[in-house]
Predict the 3D structure of the following.
Amino acid sequence: MQSGLHVAIIMDGNGRWATQRGRPRLVGHRAGAEAVRRVVRGAPRLGIGTLTLYAFSGDNWERPITETTGLMRLFGNYLRRETAELADRGVRLRIIGRRDRLPGELLRAVDAAEATTAAGTALDLRIAIDYSGRDALVLAALRARGAIGEPLDRDHFAWHLGQAMHAEGRAHDVDLMIRTGGEQRLSDFLLWECAYAELMFSPKMWPEWTAGDLAAAVADFQMRERRFGRLPAMETVA
Ligand code: IPE
Ligand code: IPE
Ligand code: MG
């Protein structure tokens, strides 16, 4: 597992960004892929070791088929186009979420991208596709039930959770959770991992996000005092 910060982003607002410009929603998703590119390039120099991006939720299958099909095609294109550069930059890519509902063509692109970038050490990039935090917990519980005779505590459960979502190793606590697009909710993302995450909400639509926005978010995070249930550092001395 990577050292460094774990930042997670709910990349929201693609559809509204496009609609505001009188364009089809898929144009917004395409612009969103460009924002992913900018943010991924900027992340390593900000002390981020793991970046987890929410690209498609389990509930997003409820959208019209033209949008879901378009998104699946876009994900495949992104992987095919970006893999070589990610590998050059030392980015290790993993797709987290369910895989059994993804189109075969996308799965092949996922396998190729993961294999090509496996040796990367500069950044763990995890893209959540067909991801649901609640489904992840249920699948982890099923795995835990199958591991008869093993102790079941937080550490073991976090391991099952990581495995259930095809992550490498155990589920990894989030330090900073960002949501763009103005809404202030989790929408079923990383429920276990966000137990003590710092939350940040940006009114900007995701296609407008830049590496500078990410740098500002990390700077804001660095100013916060995380207590994990304890007393503030100054009062502990008294
Ligand atoms: C987030 O943007 C990307 C996905 C959920 C795939 P949206 O598509 O939710 O954009 P808005 O919220 O409708 O603007
Ligand atoms: C969450 O956004 C999922 C992603 C950003 C991929 P949604 O736009 O689907 O969330 P809700 O429906 O507004 O809660
Ligand atoms: Mg949305």
